[in-house]
Design a protein that fits this description.
It contains twelve helices and ten strands. By secondary structure, the protein is an alpha+beta fold. The chain folds into two domains: 221 residues, Glutamine Phosphoribosylpyrophosphate, subunit 1, domain 1 (4-Layer Sandwich), CATH 3.60.20; 99 residues, Serine Threonine Protein Phosphatase 5, Tetratricopeptide repeat (Alpha Horseshoe). The chain has a six-stranded antiparallel β-sheet with strand order 7-8-1-2-9-10, covered by helices on one side. A four-stranded antiparallel β-sheet has the order 3-4-5-6, with helices on one face. The N and C termini lie far apart (52 Å).
Length: 342
């Protein structure tokens, strides 16, 4: 569909479907935004999420929607963003995904250009592929998930995604990513690839809503968005281990913390941040001799850490022990002299 043909379509929709269109950004995309996505619930953990890849800039800013304890929505093709918040609102009110989606489609004057999928906290799914979504287009639903695609090189994509998801193991985010990679393996988007996103939320909301998004990653513009988002997902897992290590330290479980830190460093041995803060944790817990080699390693990886060390005792991040800073800096380049600048 050409852009000039769709402009009056959206203008008419704003009149017929006012509740849905009231919150739509003025920059609503007028061309097909998404190509293939998956919405899914993990039956073991109850986590829910969306993963998507597209030949469109910043697909993660418009296609995936999810709320802890409620469900997840992917809205794509000629995107109507309001399907995201309105779908979650309906599922939060206890409306089954099939009815929630049907109600929204009934109010949309142009459901034929939409592709939408819902999954709720009970694992119920619903999906719609409009008759005027650009071929190859289609979806497939399975137990606790739906995969959907449009503008594909061939018809094999939904089936490949379903097989890839069902065959994968591990956390939900990694399994959804496997579905995206399966789509790409059979040709994927006829236009190519540009951006990708993964969003995963908890099974139940907490009193700290900022922690309810377990994974929220985007690759906005890349020649290889799936490879990059896989790297970012692995990096996020490593940072999770560092956070778990910090929590173990706070609970007085130093040995457990060291295992977490070591696992993170093994995953990303070139990450000087992991090495440095591991060393800081050791020295602040009375294990300074074990910390010194790690300080030296972090300084060799990034000498700028040497500039930070003298600032830490004053804010309680290192013990204010006479001679400690000098001893730490002595492990770095140039016989312990901090670099003079960046």
């Amino acid at each position: 569909m050409h852009i000039t043909r769709l402009v009056p379509v959206l203008a008419a929709a704003a009149v017929v479907f006012p509740a849905a269109f009231a919150s739509v950004p003025s920059a609503t995309p007028l061309r097909p935004v998404a190509t293939y996505s998956i919405v899914a619930r993990d039956p073991a953990t109850g986590e829910m999420g969306v993963a998507v890849q597209s030949h469109w800039f910043s697909v993660g800013s418009i296609v995936p929607w999810a709320e802890a304890g409620v469900g997840a929505v992917a809205t794509q093709s000629f995107v109507e963003p309001s399907y995201g918040p309105l779908g979650l609102q309906a599922m939060k009110a206890g409306i089954a995904p099939e009815k929630a989606l049907a109600d929204l489609l009934a109010k949309d004057p142009h459901p034929e250009v939409r592709q939408v999928a819902f999954v709720d906290a009970a694992g119920r799914v619903a999906a719609h592929t409009g008759a005027k979504c650009i071929p190859a287009a289609g979806h497939r639903t399975g137990k606790g998930y739906s995969v959907e695609a449009n503008l594909m090189l061939g018809d094999e994509v939904p089936e490949a995604m379903a097989r890839g998801f069902e065959a994968a193991s591990g956390p939900l985010a990694e399994r959804m990513l496997a579905a995206l990679e399966a789509a790409q393996s059979v040709g994927g988007d006829i236009r190519g690839k540009q951006s990708a996103a993964i969003l995963v939320v908890r099974a139940k909301p907490t009193d700290k809503p900022w922690t309810d998004r377990l994974v929220d990653l985007r690759v906005e513009d890349s020649d290889h968005p799936l490879a990059e988002i896989r790297r970012l997902l692995a990096l996020s897992r490593a940072y999770d281990l560092m956070n778990q290590g910090d929590e173990a330290v706070a609970a007085g479980k130093m040995d457990e913390a060291l295992v977490k830190y070591s696992r993170a460093e093994t995953m990303f041995p070139d990450n000087d941040e992991f090495v440095f803060w591991h060393a800081v944790t050791l020295v602040t817990n009375g294990r300074g001799e074990e910390a010194l080699p790690l300080f030296g390693k972090s300084f060799r990886m990034n000498p700028a850490w040497m500039l930070l060390v003298p600032r830490l005792p004053a804010v309680g991040q290192l013990p204010d022990t006479p001679g400690l800073v000098e001893k730490i800096l002595a492990t770095g380049p140039k016989a312990g002299r901090a670099p003079s600048g960046h």
